[in-house]
Amino acid sequence: MCGIVGYIGKDEKRNIIIDGLRELEYRGYDSAGMAVMSQDEISYFKAVGKLDNLADKTKDFSSSGLGVAIGHTRWATHGKPTEINAHPHLGEHSFVVHNGIIENYKELKEELEGKGVKFLSQTDTEVIVHLFEENLKHIKDPFKAYEATIARLHGAYATLLITKTAPNKIFFAKVAAPLAIGKNDKNEIYFASSDAPLIGVAKEVSYLDDKAYGVVGIDSIEIYKDGKKITPHFSTLPKDRSYAQKEGYRFFMEKEIYEQNTVVSEAIMGRVKNGKICLENLTDEYLKNIDNIVLCACGTSYHAALTASYLFERLADVRVKVEFASEFRYRKPKLNTNSLFIVISQSGETADTLEALKIAKEAGLKTLAICNVDNSSIVRLADTTLLTRAGIEKGVASTKAFATQIVLLWMLVLQMASAKKSISQSELDTEISALLHIPQILNIDNSLQERIHRLAKHYLHGHGFFFIGRDIFYPLALEGALKLKEISYLHAEGYPAGEMKHGPIALADDRLFTIALMPQTTLYEKTKSNVEELAARDAYILAISPNEFELSDDFIKTSKQEHPMSEFFEMMIILQIFALEISIRLGNNVDMPRNLAKSVTVE
Ligand code: F6R
């Protein structure tokens, strides 16, 4: 999703903007641009495609001395990814960058065109800069003109504007899209869509609240909300940028797959005490009285929710509904105020999930966020949060965030089950010892990737993939299919194994790849007969199981495990590496797949 950076100070601005945008590349984008103003002169540059293209275009440009700069990576929503549509958008003397959607842009555009304003791009963003300049014609004070501009905008936005009419100032506003301000001892001010670009350059950060807007200058930060000046809260930023490096792996996704053992340990750390699960901010008393749960999320986080729904019902004896946030928000859901509404989000910024959370809160439900990004919009809105502690996830295809979400949800199930006494102490002991064993399961054997690498060459063609499984291995099948399609661009579907005969089996032939999840602990015989039905119709079968399966064309042997979750995590790793290896063989950009964004801040 779009990324924004901004800077006020005396240093060379081109590098600051390019470096900042690099830290936001993981959000996904298809063009980039920057505008730099120094000594009343504004220069701007735009380039389609990767940031290197913008870096190339600006390689002979530099600007030091007091001035301001804004930069942007754009993920196209209104209008194709062209140079004209790339940000910054310009008026006569001002430039704007924006993340989000201006919902009433058509109406504003018509109004402005009626006054003779000429638009260059097809974007919604361009209305901001023209509206500002129109306002400035009769409201002479640039800040008041900016205030009047944002008062007219409907929708979601984080936006920065610079103008020759107010040199060395950046005007900013934020509603339902992330924006943070960083500052340091050199009187420099930075803006960014997340704190990643601020680490190492700013000392302190303030995450702006929704509806905050204002203006910053070299030695002043003025922030307003609802027309009143507010005092921002700044917190200290970490100094270390090394976490963002690939540490010897070829891709962030690969590194993130391999670090799942560590991050899952982190997710568990301090949350198991004296043979009990003790999640911060959640008392047994609180959990005991919950008999109804709604789990709501998008994409991979939705698959984590679906997995957890089996665990909640089975272990905590609680009614569960799982919702796609994008469906939930427009469907007049019938809500029970006694429900606990749990949103799951890696980024904490997904627009649909955030809106669903707002609906649940307004309806008076208790809300809980399972999230990877502290201070994100979702975390700030939910009543309570459990952080997944996966560390920044840079690969667009989510891996370690999924693993930690599942672990957190499982722990929540166990604490609830123990509070409700829906499982015995010995069952709880078995669950906890399985939980503590997961980091070991996530240690990847050296030979596994090599084996999958060799297998992957069989799977580059064909007319599609079916990933099948039962019970919790069904959402895992969905996740395996999603991983593959995201980074290989091959058609893949996840399906409940028992549903194949109700239609999809018609597709079975020797060019249909079936990836069969056949755990020993969960409905093995049932799944086996579903796979046999496919094998009988000549489907090409990759079986993943601890048990040899004579009808499979390819086979990945997993270890014998006693607990379904151990088998789940072992198979999860295999599916992630399977997608990775196919994508590499196809020569795709693993970390930044086409058309995708890391943080989906538009609906
Ligand atoms: C898949 C993926 C997406 C996200 C989805 C929700 O690999 O990354 O499907 O899971 O966009 O994002 P979050 O979890 O940030 O709310």
From TrEMBL:
Keyword set, alphabetical order = Aminotransferase, Cytoplasm, Glutamine amidotransferase, Repeat, Transferase
Task: Check the record and name the PROSITE patterns matching this protein.
Answer: GATASE_TYPE_2 (PS51278), SIS (PS51464)
One matching Pfam family is SIS
Stated EC number for the protein is: 2.6.1.16
The record's annotation in Gene3D superfamilies points to: Glucose-6-phosphate isomerase like protein, domain 1, Glutamine Phosphoribosylpyrophosphate, subunit 1, domain 1
Give the UniProt subcellular location, in the record's own words.
Cytoplasm
Where is this protein chiefly located? Answer: cytoplasm
- GO annotation, cellular component aspect: cytosol
Domain SIS, by residue range, is 282-422, 455-593
Q: Give the residue spans that cross the bilayer.
A: none
Its UniProt entry gives the catalysed reaction(s) as: D-fructose 6-phosphate + L-glutamine = D-glucosamine 6-phosphate + L-glutamate
> Among its keywords, does the record have Transferase?
yes
InterPro entries according to UniProt = GATase_2_dom, GFAT, GFAT_N, GlmS/AgaS_SIS, GlmS/FrlB_SIS, Ntn_hydrolases_N, SIS_dom, SIS_dom_sf
Q: Top enzyme class of this protein? A: transferase
Q: Which residues form the Glutamine amidotransferase type-2 domain?
A: 2-219
**A Gene Ontology molecular-function term?**
carbohydrate derivative binding
- Enumerate the NCBIfam families for this protein: glmS (TIGR01135), PRK00331.1 (NF001484)
The entry's function note states: Catalyzes the first step in hexosamine metabolism, converting fructose-6P into glucosamine-6P using glutamine as a nitrogen source.
Q: What is this protein identified as?
A: Glutamine--fructose-6-phosphate aminotransferase [isomerizing]
Q: What is the lineage of its organism?
A: Bacteria, Pseudomonadati, Campylobacterota, Epsilonproteobacteria, Campylobacterales
Which gene holds the coding sequence for this protein? glmS
